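haha ok so turns out i had the wrong file open the whole time. this is the CORRECT one, sorry everyone. sequence first:
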Amino acid sequence: MNLKPGISRRYLVFIAAIVWIFAGGMLLTKGAIFLLEDSQNLILKLIFSTAGGVLFYWFLFTKISEKHIRRIFHLKSEHPCLFSFFSVKSYLMMSLMILLGIILRKTGIISHPVLAVIYLTMGIPLTLSAIKFFVRGMKQFENESDLKV
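then structure:
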């Protein structure tokens, strides 16, 4: 009896997109809440966060998300494990980042206005990467349907 929760590779990319959009959405939401706690220099913080987020996406997250997408589409199994949208290394990295975010928020080492900028800056590339996952997944569906015609 096989207890592995397998899923088609073409759907696995959508699972990855959902996880990335969830993480990005959580950071954007928490960042917005913190931002509204202290609206001093609001426009400047938004400009800085947006510019930083776009730069992070462009120079780092495009490569990371593309690596994950390629890995998913090249998995050997036709129905890999539902959780294989990340490698073990990526799960460890994600866990450390979540833990660091919780520690920073709970200890007060960094003030909420500064955390707002950090959270927004990181939420933007995660959300943009999730969109990239969705787009690539849709293209995969289109390509597969072209092959069946």
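The chain has a mean pLDDT of 90.
again sry for the mixup
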